[in-house]
Design brief:
The structure is a single chain. By secondary structure, this protein is an alpha/beta fold. 43% of the residues lie in helices and 14% in strands. It has 23 helices and 16 strands. A hairpin with a 2-residue loop joins strand 8 and strand 9. Helix 13 crosses helix 15, helix 15 crosses helix 19 and helix 19 crosses helix 23. The longest helix is centred in the middle third of the chain and has 21 residues. The protein starts with 8 loop residues before the first helix and ends with a strand.
Amino acid sequence: MSMNTIATLGELKKSGYTSRGIKDELRQNLIAKIKAGQTPFEGVHGFEHTVIPELERAILSRHNINLLGLRGQAKTRLARLMVSLLDEYIPFVSGSEINDDPFQPISRFAKDLIAEKGDATPISWLHRDERFFEKLATPDVTVADLIGDVDPIKAANLKLSYADDRVIHFGMIPRANRCIFVINELPDLQARIQVALFNILQEGDIQIRGFKLRMPLDLQFIFTANPEDYTNRGSIVTPLKDRIGSQILTHYPESIEIAKTITAQEAKLEKEQKDRVYVPELAMDILEQISFVARDSEFVDAKSGVSARMSITALENLMSAAERRSLRAGDNHTSLRLSDFMGIVPSITGKVELVYEGEQEGAAEVAQQLISQAVHHFFPNYFPKIEKLHKKDLVSPYDPLLEYIFTEGGVVITDDCSDAEYQSSLDSIKPLDDLLKKYIPKIKKEDRYFMKELVLWGLAEYRKLSKERITEGYQFKDLL
């Protein structure tokens, strides 16, 4: 019979089941996955040669772990994925508040029950999905919340004195016995609460209101922390750091390709949106480049970081901007436009912490500058680079286009125009067709209009045209 159908201690003994600590469990299951060539941390990208090897070494070493990194670096996701390294089911004494191992009980309840019923002691089974506990460190967390306290109501109901250890109400950590326990944003935990963790991490005993209980809790601790918090809100007390076996540094994606993979995986897009809106590959590149630019921006606080969530929510807003436009225009299908990027400004302003100079500029203005800098970065990849200084008589490939715009008095691209109007506006600018034909002749048909708009934006970023935000959209004019 399968293990989780076993209902008594006697049946468990006959089955040959051997109990093991959670750190041994994680270690041995990781070894099995590595030998089988399986990926223990599925869905995490960009950490294959940095964070994940260090995390695997920590698990093999049976360490408690501190994941240290800026916001949006998948710290909590890594912790949650460790659940896949646990056994599918483990047995515990039925009715135990702290998941007592039937072979190694540690609570008074479980010891008394086994002494009374012996092999008839009822056994329950705990699935690995129920063996993950998570607590966000906030200033209002108390020792009673994490460790436990005396429960006067229990004492009254059971007619016990406060000297009896049965009046103890266990906190989150003892109740997470034989489980993974995550404390997020550890520096936010008050120093006196951090001190309460010393004995649990090292000696395995807990102390509650004068009771010193020798309870060798079996826990895998994972802490997460943001380096910014060490100076802004708190710190990790040194003796606690000393008791954490491995501190692992996380980081942001190191390439546009990895960032795109993460964004595509995490963005919550409706199938209807995907069917309605075509997304040029360059649009995704520009979207991710905005985060890379923001992390180097003089207006953004580098210590705070720029979360990967910014690109995810920006993509959702970008798709919604195109969807809304097509719905209003009555188009059944549309393609992303560069002008749609104005729709992601709210995603940027809510995700970046600005320094003083950035506050002076204004969040919306900084967001638009980041979009412009991303366009500036990719423009030379497709069209001739525009030098700041050039000879007076030198002919530029952009001269016919600049002359056309000067003659026409400017070009307006409206936000909500239909696809037919949008394409007609760009098709009327013949020099754009010549530039595409000469420099990117093999361009996909679906990308042509995005590239035409890129030329206008690129010339504006290189100060060959003026780009002005008007009520209806964008106006491109001669600088003079």
